[in-house]
Amino acid sequence: MLRTLLRLTLAALVRLILRPRVRGLENLPPGPFIIASNHLSFFDSLFIPILTPRRVHFVGKQGWLEMPGLKGKAQALFFRSIDMISIDKSSGAGVTSGLTGALDILKRGDVVGIHVEGGRSPDGRLYKGNAGVAWLALAGGFPVVPCGLIGTDKVHPVGSKRLHVARFTVNFGAPLTFEEDHGRQADRRVRRTVTDRITQAIAAQSGQEYADIYLSTVRERMKQNSGA
Amino acid sequence: MPEQTGVLDLEDLRSTLAEVLDVDVAQVTDTADFAEDLDVDSLMALEILVALEEKYHVTMVDENPQHIRSLSATYALLLEKLTSK
Questions:
Q1: More reliable by pLDDT, A17 or B66
Q2: Shortest Cα–Cα distance, A218 to chain B (Å)
Q3: Which residues of chain B lie closer than 8 angstroms to A130, CB-CB?
Q4: Which of B39 and A149 is assigned the larger pLDDT?
Q5: Residue among A93, A132, A220 minimizing CB distance to B61
Q6: How many distinct helices (H) and strands (E) make up chain A?
Q7: pLDDT digits (tens, 9 = 90+) for A84-114
Q8: B70 contacts in A (CB within 8 Å)?
Q9: Is position A178 within any domain?
Q10: What does the pLDDT read at residue B5?
Q11: Which of B36, B43, B62 has its CB closest to that of A91?
Q12: pLDDT band for position A60 (cuts 50, 70, 90)
């Protein structure tokens, strides 16, 4: 009840102040599905669930739930209240547990949201998708709705401490299904093909230039260069 | 190139990784980036962790899959595990 109230209040505030354009809601199928999106702003994991007329469990970073202090506790409470699920990417066991948790949510009939790049784009380009989304789609035979966010980085630019009033767009594309490969989630080549199809569909919705490289690789190289 | 030690055989590790990844041994060079050059995704990296755990009898699943980025990095990580056993 409290959760629904919070969600509705946030949605009303966001719609009133930021006036987002939400397109393609007719593409959302009934039953469980996965929303696969790009990632431009810290608030993307909030905007998508509150602007989608279904209960969406967005996959977020475990760190968001473990920040120290009162502010950290409030942040964790907030993210939990909007049904965020966390994946601890710092360990193999954490990734496995996070993915099986997301699969359970889908099997229950709910919606799971994932940023396929595994983090925010540092330059506005769309980076190579991680395979977790394909694993979920193939393991359960769930449809994937590609979602393109445009302009959320203007609402909350990287490093900014406050929200800026700027319009943004959420585009939902037609759902992708992978019936022919259902159950083949253990095959990494199938996962790659499926992930690439999903990423291309996101690019079609977001209009981003595609960078055929993992975001984690770019970050690693930036780290090495700054340390050199 | 990783310094060869008596604790861990580099060529044996190379063969193990090639087998898990289903690629030719020659493709697993010392510095090949698993993700970018051999198309190893995060879930494949998990499979590598599990395979190494079974073969070398060390706990690997608590490790960050992103650290499995190359033969050199995997060798260093495994060597650390084996020497601290």
A1: A17
A2: 11
A3: 41-42
A4: A149
A5: A93
A6: 8, 9
A7: 888 887 788 888 888 999 999 999 999 999 9
A8: none
A9: yes
A10: 58
A11: B62
A12: confident
Task: Identify which of B63, B66, B37 has the alpha carbon closest to the alpha carbon of residue B50.
Answer: B63
Q: Decide if A130 contacts A116 (C-beta within 8 A).
A: yes
**A10 is a domain residue:** no
List strand residue ranges (DSSP E) for A98-214, in order.
111-115, 126-128, 144-150, 169-172, 210-214
CA distance A185 to A204: 25
Q: State the Cα–Cα distance between residues A116 and A36, nearest whole angstrom.
A: 6
What percent of chain B is predicted at pLDDT more than 90?
A: 65
Check if A131 contacts B (Cβ < 8 Å): yes
User: What domain range includes position A142?
Assistant: 30-227
Q: Is residue A121 part of a domain?
A: yes
- Residue B2 has what pLDDT? 58
Of the residues A96, A114, A224, the best mutation for testing chain B's interface (the one with the most B CB atoms within 10 Å of its CB) is A96
Q: What is the pLDDT of residues A125-141, one digit of tens each?
A: 999 999 999 999 999 99
Could A213 and B66 be called an inter-chain contact, meaning their C-beta atoms sit closer than 8 Å?
no
Query: Mind listing the domains of chain B with CATH numbers?
Result: 10-83 (1.10.1200.10)
Q: Is A212 helix (H, G, I), strand (E, B) or coil?
A: strand
Identify the CATH number of the domain in which residue A125 sits: 3.40.1130.10
- Between the CA atoms of A216, A217, A218 and A224, what dihedral angle is there, to the nearest 10 degrees? 110
Whether A147 maps to a domain, the answer reads yes
> Does A91 sit within 8 Å of B63, measured CB to CB?
yes
User: Residues of A with CB below 8 A from B45's CB?
Assistant: 92
Q: Is A199 on the interface with B (CB under 8 A)?
A: no
Beta-carbon separation of B41 and A188 below 8 A = yes
Q: How many domains does chain A have?
A: 1
